[in-house]
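note to self: dont lose this again. the chain is below, predicted strucutre after it. 380 aa total, dont forget to put it in the shared folder this time
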Amino acid sequence: MKKIPGIWVAGLVAAGLLIGLTVNGCGDAVTEQTTKSLSSLAINPVIATIEVGANRTFSCIANYSDGTVAVVKPVWTFTGTCGVVAAVGYSGRFTASLEGAGVLHAEYLAQLASAEITVTTNEAAAGLTTIEVTPVTYKGRQLGSVTFGAQGVNASGEAVAINPTWRSSNSLVGTLTFEGTTATLEVKGQGTTTISCLTGGVTGSASVTIEGYVVEITVESDTYVDQSDPATTHESDAALKAGYVNATDRRYETYLRFRLTGGVLPTGASLEAAALMLYPSVAGSSTLQIKKLNSAFTAATTWETRPPTGTFLMSGNFTAGSYNQIGNDALLVLAREWYAGTPPNYGVAVIQEGTVDGTVVILSKEDGTYPPRLRLEYRR
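---
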């Protein structure tokens, strides 16, 4: 049989490739007695911050099916423009050249591992002593996002340019993304977290508390009526009209109904704030009024069969091209009544009282992208 030199065997053992081998008495070929497989691969450290001009050594750890662990010699690569990696023995040595971030990769026996690398400038040389994060505290509901900014400051109170790394202490509260001195937390759950901004050995932080919930309910039904076209229905139109045109003595009224029962909100929810969210494609400068409806409207409603309006809720001005949020305590009381089921939920009207000239064109539920919504804040 063909012999296997001892140095080859030693090399295979070190690489974790020779497993359970026995050499026969003549020193000839070996036979396999036991087997094990590679379970997982990891890079140590998995996260690193390195200053420009510095280098850092990484190792690759293999975990095998029999519970053994070994440092192995992978193929090292780096995705990014802030530095390069070179194999030095069993290690990967990363040399930082530019500010930025990237991902270090290790490949071994068809498995991959990765590590996050952030390269920063040496702010300590510029006299950085403090990082101020704003807002320093945030308390809100479970919806949307929170944006944070950071400013480096030296001992004299002067601004220092920084390119920091950001971290969140509780990923259950939200997902944190960042670029330079700006970070955004996409809120996804209740709880508290600390947002940290760090570079050059200096750390700034902000505290976040998410309490309660927010839901935005898309309008269930909507339509408008036209005084100058009194027998026509507009329930299927992609836009709603409200207001008064003085030159032609023409009046429009918009009707909206939002369903709050039937599982839209959890049982026992305590409503704490309410606001209409309307997206105008065209808006005049006048103030329009929002009133409670005293009877129902349908897809067949026309100017001739329009429902009567009741209690005044609020008034508001509109701006085209974005959601306009209009709310107050009167709307909150009405929403609580709708949620309780008494009195009946007929919806609200957007109108122009008197002869003040001004109209607004609001995108309807048929638009699909920016339908009318009712924004509710609640606890449970």
